[in-house]
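Much of what follows relies on a compact textual record of a protein's fold. With that in mind, consider the following protein and its fold in token form.
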Amino acid sequence: MYKIAVMGDWDSIYGFGALGLDTFRIEEGQTEEAIRVMRSLAEQNYAIIYITEALAAKIPAEVDRYRTMAKPAVILIPGISGNTGEGVLAVRKSVEQAVGSDIIFNK
């Protein structure tokens, strides 16, 4: 069975544990740890990795590494500090790539 992980600062992700998702606490300045954890999750049986926008901004090359792969799907979510809009832009790019045009925002 596939698993789902959530990565980010503790205040942003702790609630996901109550939903049965596996949480991985990565605090400010732990960039190398974030890369190590993401690679480990990708090698394991994780189909979806949710990652806070703030953390994804610190490791953009690692996040982009999985964009073209079927598994794991890396999905950006807003953190406790707020929504930066990067998650919506990532979904928009994915849809544009799959469909060939912007069917979400029609721009």
